[in-house]
Amino acid sequence: MSYPMKLVAATVEAVWGGKRLMNEKWNKHTNGSNIAESWELSCHEKGESIVVNGEFSSRRLSGVLEENPQFLGKKAREFSFFPILVKLIDSKDNLSIQVHPDDEYALKNEGEYGKTEMWYIVDAKKGSGVYCGFKEPVSKQKLEEALKDGTVTSLLNFIEVKKGDCLFIPAGTVHAICGGILLCEVQQNSSVTYRLYDYDRIDASGNKRELHIGKALEVIDSDKVVTPNENSKAIDGNVIQLASCKYFTACELTCNEEYVLNVDEDSFVSLTVVEGGGAIMADGNCISLDLGDTVFLPAGLGEVTLYGNLKAISAKV
Predict the structure, then answer these.
(1) Is 60 part of the annotated catalytic residue set?
(2) Percent of the chain beyond pLDDT 70?
(3) Around 257, how many Cα atoms within 13 Å sit in the side-chain half-sphere?
(4) Backbone angles phi and psi of 75, in degrees to 5
(5) Which residues on adjacent β-strands are paired with residue 281?
(6) Alpha carbon 106 to chain centroid distance?
(7) 208 strand-pairing partners
(8) Distance CA 105, CA 103 (A)
(9) Residue 144: helix, strand or coil by DSSP?
(10) How far, CA to CA in Å, does 311 sit from each of 10, 22, 181, 302?
């Protein structure tokens, strides 16, 4: 049976994580002291989504899809793995300066796929921003020197961001989310991250976190320039396409009282509510959608109607 499946996220604690997702507004749960990441749509072994309604209630989404591969859709079935991971990220402090490898390098060296990602800014304190790429092309020698003397951030391109901004970050782009930002990330289903610099921070065990400078230097694209909203384009009055690549297409979807979308045979669609709330109905199945909720819509579900006043980030292949 195909129906809209509401998901419960796996949560991740980190030294830079905040507490916004833990309050009643977002209603995420953890046994830790913070929620840095909430893995909203995940079939990754390090944190899986659980279905909480209907026939598949209390089941791992990955198990449901293994038994019902038609729910993935034609495009997603072309991958040997579930291609997408969707997160909410709350950065109280700066994340490490980092880079992700492409598929070729990651498969050869890590046995896992690489990571291209997109950030949608849900909320940002005034003056907060992100590091994305370099101010100008930089040699490996100059970068190594800056890493040794702790001045690497002086080489990076700092972009001040605001609510509603979007950045598309291909593999090989040096980047870091800075403090004061809440965002929704749509990414390849991978956890391969190479840290270059972590501000000499100490973790809960009193140790500095591991750096991966050698591997990072091998995969960095020092010429890459990232500009906010450079890939955004309006699809209709309710939908803005934020980014599209072979791994995912992500959109901002706005519902003002009612909006109908069609989920065809090509791909599943996930919706993560980042503002407001309402409900979703398909084939007589109606479930509530509150702030922070994520729902998985199986491929071929057909017409789906959203009700209420909300913004959601949609993701599909």
Answers:
(1) no
(2) 100
(3) 0
(4) -70, -45
(5) 286, 305
(6) 19
(7) 202
(8) 6
(9) helix
(10) 22, 20, 18, 21
CA 118 to chain centroid, in Å, comes to: 6
Q: What whole-number distance in Å separates Cα of residue 228 and Cα of residue 226? A: 7
d(CA 149, CA 185): 31
Q: Is residue 86 within 8 Å of 314, Cβ to Cβ?
A: no
Residue position matching structure tokens 């006043």 = 309
pLDDT in tens, 166-180: 999 999 999 999 999
Q: What gap in Å lies between CA 188 and CA 197, rounded to an integer? A: 23
Residue 192: name the closest of 270, 117, 94 by CA: 117
On whether the CB atoms of residues 94 and 176 are closer than 8 A, the answer is: yes
- Report d(CA 87, CA 274) in Å as an integer: 11
Sequence letter at residue 206:
G
Contact in structure between 56 and 65 (CB atoms under 8 Å): no
* pLDDT value at residue 55: 95
Residue from 20, 195, 201, 209 carrying the catalytic annotation: 195
Average pLDDT over the chain reads: 95
From the list 90, 233, 228, 115, the residue with the least C-alpha distance to 166 is 228
Band of residue 195 on the pLDDT scale cut at 50, 70, 90 = very high
Asked if 214 contacts 200 with a C-beta cutoff of 8 angstroms, the reply is: no
Please report which helix (H) or strand (E) contains residue 287, including its range. Answer: strand 285-289
d(CA 108, CA 6): 36
CB 283 within 8 A of CB 251: no
Taking the C-alpha atoms of residue 263 and residue 73, their distance in angstroms, rounded to an integer, is: 10
Length of the chain: 317
> What DSSP state is assigned to residue 58?
T
